[in-house]
Amino acid sequence: MSLLKNWLRAGVAVVALLASTLLPAAAQAAPAAGSNTHISAENVVAVTSANYQQVMEVSKTKLVVLDFGASWCPPCRQLKPVLEKLAAEYNGRILVGMVDVDVSRDLSSRYRIQYLPTLVPVRNTAELPGSRMIGFKGESALRTWIDAQLAKG
């Protein structure tokens, strides 16, 4: 098990290194523009280890979509405004939890995140099995995916 964890950590480190090498302007500008600490949408919250249990309590009454991403990840930056828009449109039926994998490594490990962005639907404190969405495939695919998760109950 620890060998697997080491390989996963090495893989994430390689992706981070490549992203910072290939996208230096994005990596420098991202902390100011992509910070998850000042999310204004009512149904969107930055999730950390400190508030994770509170978010899981919310999952007992509504669908929680955990968005695992990073400020240096271009698809993550494309996904974020669309996800915030849809969270507002669904008018309280979902809560989007933004998880910065660089800040909350423990949550990334708990959910075994391998690719960014990864959306994880959670209901009653448990991940809906076989329901992850990896990558950003556009607004219409995202809306269809959210509707499918809501239909599961």
TrEMBL record:
Residues 19-151 form the Thioredoxin domain. SUPFAM superfamilies: Thioredoxin-like. It holds the Pfam family Thioredoxin. It comes from Lentzea jiangxiensis. GO terms for cellular component: cytosol. It comes from the Bacteria. Belongs to the thioredoxin family. InterPro entries: Thioredoxin-like_sf, Thioredoxin_domain. This is Putative thioredoxin. Residues 1-29 form the signal peptide. Gene3D superfamilies: Glutaredoxin (3.40.30.10).
